[in-house]
Amino acid sequence: xxxxxxxxxxxxxxxxxxxxxxxxxxxxxxxxxxxxxxxxxxxxxxxxxxxxxxxxxxxxxxxxxxxxxxxxxxxxxxxxxxxxxxxxxxxxxxxxxxxxxxxxxxxxxxxxxxxxxxxxxxxxxxxxxxxxxxxxxxxxxxxxxxxxxxxxxxxxxxxxxxxxxxxxxxxxxxxxxxxxxxxxxxxxxxxxxxxxxxxxxxxxxxxxxxxxxxxxxxxxxxxxxxxxxxxxxxxxxxxxxxxxxxxxxxxxxxxxxxxxxxxxxxxxxxxxxxxxxxxxxxxxxxxxxxxxxxxxxxxxxxxxxxxxxxxxxxxxxxxxxxxxxxxxxxxxxxxxxxxxxxxxxxxxxx
Length: 350
What we know:
Distance between the termini: 42 Å
Order of helices and strands: HEEEHEEEHHHHHEEEEHHHH
C-alpha cells in the first residue's frame, strides 16, 4: 500500500475533531495504515486508511462492524475499539483521492503482544476469541456481509492450487515438486471440509473472526489478561474450524511461518492442548458435540490451506504475498507442510 500524503492524513483526522495535536504511526499492519491521533478538543482515537485493493467494498466492513457493536451481548469482554463518528455524523470518510478512512476508540492501558509460548497468555487470548464468537451467537449470521468471498473455502483453495500447477512455469514447478506431491496426497482434508461445510446442523454457521493471531488481542498492561479482540475487518459468517484452526496453526507452532529452520518446526503439545481446552471453556455450552470433536482437526484444515495458498502464490509468480527473496513463498509452503505433518502425528491422523 502506497504512503499517504501528510495533508490528506491531517484532513482525515480533522473529520473527527477540530484541534489535532499529534499524529503518530501505530502498529505494523501489512494491510491497512494506522495512526494514533491526539486532539486538544476530544479524546484520542485510532485512525485507519483501509486498503481498498484488499477490501474492495469497505462499506461492508463498516456495516459488519456496526452489527457487532449493536449486537454483542457479552458482559465479560468489552466491545473493543468501537467505531467513531465524524463531526458530520458518519462512520467513515472518503477523501477526494478515493482514500477510505475510519476511526475507532483508542483503548488506553492496553498492549499487544508478539508471538509467545507462554501457556497462560495463550489461554487468555484463545478464551477471548472464543468468548467473542459466543457473544455474537444471538445474531443471524446471514445478516453479515462476506468481506472476502470464499476466504476459508478449502475446496476453492484446492482448485486454485491445481489451476496454478496447470499454468505454472516449468522452473517453478520443478522447484515445488515435493510440496505439490505432498499436498496432493492430502485431499482427504478437502473431503473433511465438504462434510463440515454441508452439515449446518452439526456444524452451524457462526460469526467468526477469521484472523485469530495473538497480536489481534489487546491485553491489560498491568494484569496481562486479555481485554478484547481487535482487527475485526474479516468478521463474516463461517464455521468453527476457521478460528480454532488458525489459533492452532499460529499459536501451537514452535516456529513462525517464515522460518526455514526446518528441523525446529513442530507442534508444542502443551500449547496444542491448552488451545483446545481454552476455546471449549471460553465458548461455554454453545458448541455442538460435533464441533467439539472436530476442534483438533481444525488445525489440519487451516495449516493445509495455508500451505496451498503459499505454493499457489509461488506458482503464480508471487502476486499476493509480499516476499523478500525469490523462493520465500515456496519456503513458507514447505514450512506449513512440515507443521501439517507434525500436527497429523499430534492428532493421530498418521
